[in-house]
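User: My collaborator sent over this chain with a note saying "see what the structure looks like." That's all I know about it. Can you take a look?
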Amino acid sequence: MSLSDVLDVVSSVALVAGGLFAAYQLVELRRQRRREAIIDLVRSFQSGEFTAALAAVNSLPDDADLATIRRTLGDDGRDRVFLVGLTWESLGVLVFRREVDMATVDDFFSGAISISWVKLRAFVEEDRRLLGRATVWEWFQWLAERMTERESGTTPVPAHVAYRDWKP
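Assistant: Without extra context I'll predict from the sequence alone. Here is the result:
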């Protein structure tokens, strides 16, 4: 084998190795961006305003309509419902577009999303009728239904039980 052939092989190997390294770096960059997005998302749910709104929604009876929301939560009750509902709506779009994976959303928010839907289902249906638009709250409903599907057939097991033998 001539020196020229050896240099061609070395050049080809270097080119392939460089391509593989670049692909690996892109995968790592995407993984890092996704992790940062999830951390930012979780932080946004930890605001005092959101947690107060979620607690207010949790205090509603199941299938609360607008009149029940106003009676139970007062004049700003609808604003609290909108904060929670539109947050889940936004999260539903992000999950659907695969910007955030379903397993992560399930780990962080499945209970809160499912409970919110049970509490607000009648309000959502009423709001759709009043606005004459079936697409109102569509991603909130979609996300809640995906959470319900994930839990169907099995009872959700709390992390402290499911992973009690976990070791760092």
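A starting point for your reply to your collaborator: The chain has two domains: 1-38, 47-162.
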